[in-house]
Structure formats: structure tokens, C-alpha cells
Design a protein that fits this description.
The protein is mainly β and 326 residues long. 2% of the residues lie in helices and 20% in strands. The strands form five sheets. Strands 4, 5, 6, 14, 15 and 16 form a six-stranded antiparallel beta sheet that branches. Strands 1, 7, 8, 9 and 17 form a five-stranded mixed beta sheet that branches. Strands 2-3 form a two-stranded antiparallel sheet.
Length: 326
């Protein structure tokens, strides 16, 4: 089979549109639509071998940081369209990459900068669409959460190296696309007695700033692409210094503070460590990502990925790397 990654788009789309890719030129190509389909057979503007699909591309969520009052992990980047508006060609092979979960290792007996980056989630890719892995939470003396699809929560504690960055949540939607693929992490905080990490950002909401406890993770976003509305892409809860780990993860796969992992194939962020040396600073790993492609059943005979049906549509779900054959 041929392998190709076309970037063909048609004008006059409805719904969310193509996310973060070149603007649609509405001055040419057929404009008449019916519920997101082109009135040209199976929605194809590129001839008999082309048809339109709907997609959901979610990256891997980040782990929370595993040191005193670590910030919650950010949810994986979340990119989708609400109708069948991305054109593919029959018999063309499109590579699919599913982002891995941010690991809660290597272990960290003391805050080491290199260990923070190692906990970010992996990117997910389909055709021209890339969703960025979530950013991990901030470490105790480093303050700021990592950037990503959604940003990690800021850590509790004081950043003596750079007080201007102390406790800030990581920036989401990085690199920026429109509509946004995710949100910022919440800020951590400290006072004379208690340090608390901020919640990781989610696809649907920013992570919460710390309060009397660590901040809750931001909620994910729902999608009915698989036939039933499912929340995915939530952030993890921020840790709190001491034995308590009470900050919840966001709705949609986010892990609660402590050793709670993000949900598998949701792109959820893991919970940040509460911060008890004797307990080994338990923290949660991120959740792996997922790629889902939905098409009209009559448009193709492809059997790529795990195949299900909903009404007149066929759905292809990828929980690991593979190829979608148009």
C-alpha cells in the first residue's frame, strides 16, 4: 500500500472545524453541506477515492511530581472535530502514534531537575494532527509545573533559585493551536506550616490553585465519537505536605493526589506526591492517550484498529501505535 499524509481540507465546515491547521479557503470547492457531510456522495470533494472522517486525538497524561507537595500532572492534549470534516483517501496508509503515560519513575530521593521532564506524557499523532503530552507537576524547590497539552500544577514550597517562578502552574495549549488543546495548571502555595501543590490542567478546565489542601485537577472534556459521551483528558490533584492526600483528580481520568494514576487511554494526569519521606513520596503515573477515527460505514472497507459501529458509522479505536488504512 502507498503511504501518504495529505493535508486536504474542504471549505465551509461546521462544528469545531479543523483544529490548529491551515485556515480553510472558502472561496473554492463545493459549499453545500448537510449535517457536516458534503452533498457529493460520501462527503468527498477530492474524487471517488476520498471521503471525510471525524477524529479524536488525545496525548498521554503526565505523572504528578514525586517529592514534597508535588504538583498534579497535566492532562494530555485534546484535539477533535465535531463532524466529519477531515478528508482522507481510500487505500492510503496514515500512521497513528498514541502517546504513552508519563511515568512516576525514575524515583526521586531528592529534587533533581532532569527527573521532572521525564514525567511528561507522550504526544499522539494522526495525519496532520498532533496533540502534545501533558506537563508534569512542579517539584518542591523548583516551583513551576511543566508546559504541555495541559500544564502541570505548581508545587508547594519555596523556589530559592528563582522566587519569581515560585509555585506557578505550567502553561497549557503548548504549542498553541485553536481551539485550545488544554488548559493551565493551578498554582501551588506555601505558608508557615503547610505546603500544597496545584492541580494539573485538564482539557475542559484549568487546574485549581491550592487552598487548605492541594488543588484539584482540572476536568476533562466529553466526546461522543465512540457512540457514548465519555470524559477524557483531566488533570491530576496536587499533593500536600504531610500524610494527607485529599485533592481529587479532575473528571475524565485525572488521578487523585498520592499514588493515584491517570486513567488508561484517557490522557488523564496523575496525582502529585503528598510528601512523606518515610512513605517514599508516592505519586501517580499519567494515563495513556488514545486516537479514535469515525467514518460513514459505506465510505470504506477499512478494518484498522479496534472496529465498532454506531448507527450508520464505523469507529476505529487505537490504544497503541498503528496505521489507519483509508
Amino acid at each position: 500500500m502507498k503511504s501518504k499524509q495529505p493535508g486536504l481540507f474542504t471549505g465551509g465546515m461546521i462544528g469545531n472545524g479543523i483544529i490548529g491547521d491551515p485556515p480553510v479557503d472558502t472561496r473554492s470547492s463545493p459549499q453545500t453541506k448537510s449535517f457536516g457531510y458534503q452533498v457529493l456522495g460520501f462527503g468527498a470533494g477530492g474524487g471517488s477515492n476520498a471521503y471525510n472522517i471525524r477524529y479524536l486525538v488525545i496525548a498521554g497524561g503526565a505523572a504528578g511530581y514525586n517529592y514534597y507537595s508535588g504538583g498534579g500532572g497535566g492532562g494530555g492534549g485534546y484535539r477533535t472535530v465535531a463532524c466529519k470534516s477531515l478528508e482522507v483517501e481510500k487505500c492510503i496508509t496514515y500512521p497513528v502514534t498514541v502517546g504513552g503515560a508519563g511515568p512516576n519513575s525514575p524515583p526521586c530521593g531528592s529534587p533533581v531537575p532532569g527527573n521532572q521532564d521525564a514525567r511528561n506524557g507522550g504526544n499522539s499523532v494522526f495525519n496532520t494532527i498532533t496533540s502534545t503530552g501533558g506537563g508534569t507537576g512542579g517539584r518542591y524547590d523548583g516551583g513551576r509545573g511543566q508546559t504541555g497539552g495541559s500544564g502541570g500544577g505548581g508545587a508547594g514550597g519555596n523556589n530559592t533559585a528563582d522566587p519569581a517562578l515560585d509555585n506557578a502552574g505550567g502553561i497549557g495549549n503548548t504549542p498553541p493551536v485553536s481551539p485550545s488543546q488544554g488548559n493551565n495548571g493551578g498554582n501551588g502555595g506555601s505558608d508557615s506550616s503547610v505546603n500544597k501543590g496545584g492541580g494539573g490542567g485538564g482539557a475542559g478546565a484549568v487546574g485549581a490553585n491550592s487552598g487548605t489542601t492541594g488543588g484539584a485537577g482540572g476536568n476533562g472534556s466529553p466526546s461522543d465519537i465512540s457512540g457514548t459521551a465519555v470524559m477524557r483528558g483531566a488533570g491530576g490533584g496536587g499533593g500536600m505536605y504531610g500524610p494527607c492526600a485529599v485533592a481529587p483528580g479532575g473528571c475524565g481520568g485525572g488521578g487523585g493526589a498520592g499514588s493515584v494514576n491517570g486513567g488508561a487511554n484517557t490522557g488523564g494526569g496523575g496525582g502529585g506526591a503528598p510528601g512523606v519521606a518515610a512513605g517514599g513520596f508516592p505519586t501517580g503515573a499519567g494515563g495513556s492517550g488514545v486516537v479514535i477515527i469515525r467514518r460513514e460505514t459505506g465510505a470504506s472497507c477499512s478494518t484498522s484498529g479496534t472496529v465498532t459501529t454506531s448507527g450508520t458509522d464505523t469507529i476505529h479505536t487505537f490504544t497503541g501505535d498503528g496505521t489507519y488504512v483509508g
